[in-house]
Amino acid sequence: MYPNLDAEMARRGLKRKDLACMFRDRAATVSDKLNGKSPFLLDEVFRIKENFFPECDIEYLFDTKKDTL
Q1: Is 66 domain-assigned?
Q2: Residue 54: which domain range?
Q3: How much is the pTM?
Q4: Is residue 34 part of a domain?
Q5: What is the CATH number of the domain that holds 36?
Q6: What percent of the chain has pLDDT over 90?
Q7: Residue 67 maps to a domain
Q8: DSSP code per residue over 1-69
Q9: What are the φ/ψ torsions at residue 46 (nearest 5 degrees)?
């Protein structure tokens, strides 16, 4: 659902459980959000960006379209 976020997580070796720990949530809940089954809250979006990807734009990280070049 968020191909850029998935790619950036892979580049940094981050797992879904790393996000879950930050939110004190279950990895399954984070997976549901990453797969689009439930939405990220705005504060979660900002925390992900600030804690893991400060150099990336939110628009880039949470873009739902996969670029095909």
Answers
A1: no
A2: 3-61
A3: 0.84
A4: yes
A5: 1.10.260
A6: 70
A7: no
A8: --HHHHHHHHHHT--HHHHHHHHT--HHHHHHHHTTSSPPPHHHHHHHHHHH-TTS-HHHHT--SPP--
A9: -65, -40
Whether the CB-CB separation of 41 and 32 falls below 8 Å is answered with no
Query: Per-residue pLDDT for 14 more than 90?
Result: yes
Asked, for residue 18, whether it belongs to a domain, the answer is yes
Give the mean pLDDT of 38-55.
95
Q: How many domains does the chain have?
A: 1
User: 64 near 1, Cβ under 8 Å?
Assistant: yes
Query: Which string of b and e fits 9-35 if b means at least 16 CB within 10 Å?
Result: beeeebebeebbeebeeeeeebeebbe
Q: How far apart are alpha carbons 3 and 65 in whole angstroms? A: 7
Contact 16, 31 (CB under 8 A): yes
Instruction: Return the pLDDT at 23.
Output: 84
